[in-house]
């Protein structure tokens, strides 16, 4: 199976590839990176028709390479990704967080949502079922630390921010780049922690393996 991974942040590449290595090493991966997407979203203050068209072009390119599925790893672009999914149905096109949201909704009613990218805390909550009570928390300075190559400070800030989420059933890490901090977050909070890359890989594997011997 050939999976195209489309990224808006370079920091997402290593965590998702690590999840594939652990959970589905047979999959063949192709990475597409446009690291201007997140900067342009922050500049524009919201999603635009022009942004949707950029995503549609990325989807057409991925489909044209013979991909069996597309996984977007950029968490603040839900409506743009939905447009790609409609354009290429029935090929699986996954939003970065949808698999994790399904897992979270099945496992708890009060979910701590930890993010390093502020627009995610505007775009992602409506994707949860209304029965879920969300506790959103922004990791101030986390993404800036990654941008300057300081993974240790990023992870420390994620762990510190997670301490405000003890009063929940579980914690969901919204960005793929946060996955390496998952074990430490679970340790300091005493809560189960879901990561977007692991959830997405398992969902894709199940979808594409259905009906295969």
Share in helix: 40-55%
Uncertain ranges = none
Alpha plus pi helix count: 10
Distance between the termini: 14 Å
Strand content: 15-25%
User: What is the H/E string?
Assistant: EHEHHEHEHEHEHHEHEH
Strands side by side in the biggest sheet = 2-1-3-4
Structural class: alpha/beta
* Broad shape: globular
Over the alpha carbons, how many angstroms does the gyration radius reach? 16 Å
Main beta sheet strand tally, sense and closure: 4 strands, parallel
User: Average pLDDT value?
Assistant: 93
Work out the number of β strands. 8
Written description of the protein model:
- The structure is a single chain.
- The chain is an alpha/beta fold and 213 residues long.
- The chain contains 10 helices and 8 strands.
- Strands 2-1-3-4 form a 4-stranded parallel β-sheet, sandwiched between helices. The chain has a 4-stranded parallel β-sheet with strand order 6-5-7-8, with helices on both faces.
- α3 (49-64) crosses α4 (78-88) and α8 packs parallel to α9 (182-189).
- The radius of gyration is 16 Å and the shape is globular.
- The model has no long low-confidence stretch (mean pLDDT 93).
What are the SSEs and their pairings?
Blueprint: E1 2-7, H1 13-23, E2 28-33, H2 37-44, H3 49-64, E3 69-72, H4 78-88, E4 93-94, H5 98-107, E5 110-115, H6 120-123, E6 133-138, H7 142-147, H8 151-162, E7 170-173, H9 182-189, E8 193-195, H10 196-209
Helix pairs in contact: 1-10, 3-4, 5-10, 8-9
């Amino acid at each position: 199976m050939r999976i195209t991974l489309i990224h808006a942040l370079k920091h997402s590449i290593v965590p998702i590839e690590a999840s594939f290595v652990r959970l589905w090493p047979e999959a063949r991966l192709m990475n597409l990176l446009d690291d201007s997407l997140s900067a342009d979203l922050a500049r524009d203050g919201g999603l635009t028709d022009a942004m949707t068209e950029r995503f549609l072009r990325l989807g057409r390119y991925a489909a044209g390479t013979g991909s069996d599925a597309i996984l977007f790893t950029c968490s603040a672009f839900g409506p743009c990704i939905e447009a790609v999914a409609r354009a290429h149905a029935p090929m699986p096109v996954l939003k970065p967080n949808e698999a994790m949201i399904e897992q979270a909704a099945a496992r708890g009613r009060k979910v701590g949502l930890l993010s390093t990218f502020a627009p995610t805390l505007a775009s992602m909550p409506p994707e949860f079922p209304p029965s879920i009570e969300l506790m959103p928390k922004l990791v101030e300075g986390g993404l800036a630390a990654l941008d300057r190559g300081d993974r240790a400070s990023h992870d420390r800030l994620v762990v510190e921010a997670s301490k405000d989420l003890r009063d929940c059933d579980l914690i969901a890490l919204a960005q793929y780049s946060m996955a390496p901090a998952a074990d430490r977050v679970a340790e300091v909070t005493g809560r189960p922690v879901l990561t977007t890359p692991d959830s997405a890989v398992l969902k894709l594997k199940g979808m594409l393996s259905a009906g295969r011997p």
